[in-house]
Amino acid sequence: METYTIGQAARLLGVSVDTARRWADAERFPTRREGTRRMVDGPDLAAFCVEAAQESGEGDEAPYTSARNAFPGIVTAVKLGTVDAQVEIQAGPHRIVSLLTREAVEELGLEVGARATARVKSTSVFVDRA
Question: What angle is formed at CA 119 by the lines to CA 82 and CA 109, rounded to 5 degrees?
Fold first, then answer.
């Protein structure tokens, strides 16, 4: 069975190590000691990831879309061409790069520091302004 340190768990959850420790201290997911290290069993972490994702979606007004794989994050780079554009989003531990039209980037008001959600369906990425 795969096990993770608190630091590894934090990276997978897309939160700081301090937040992961607080969640473990609040018994939101079980940990155990191996020497001086706190460890999380893979199945326990997977179950918590699903639970945390469901909690984070509660109360959010999601746009009407058929794309189910959503990666909320922050725009870290925008490269505008004459017709096209490249947008990079950091969503937790994931760096997502999307190629779209310059017009779409301008209409969405995407710029470095803006919150955005990358939605993935098949091989296409749809970007929604948060």
Answer: 45
pLDDT tens digit sequence for 11-27: 878 888 999 999 999 99
Nearest Cα neighbor of 73 from 46, 92, 58 is 92
The angle formed by the CA atoms of residues 37, 20 and 42, to the nearest 5 degrees, is: 65
pTM for this structure?
A: 0.51
pLDDT tens for residues 35-81? 999 999 988 888 887 787 667 655 555 556 666 788 888 888 999 99
CA–CA distance, 99 with 85 (Å, rounded to integer): 6
Residue ranges in 1-59 assigned as alpha helix (H): 6-13, 17-25, 42-57
Q: Are 10 and 20 in contact (CB under 8 A)?
A: yes
Question: Helix crossing, 6-13 with 42-57: angle to 10°?
Answer: 30
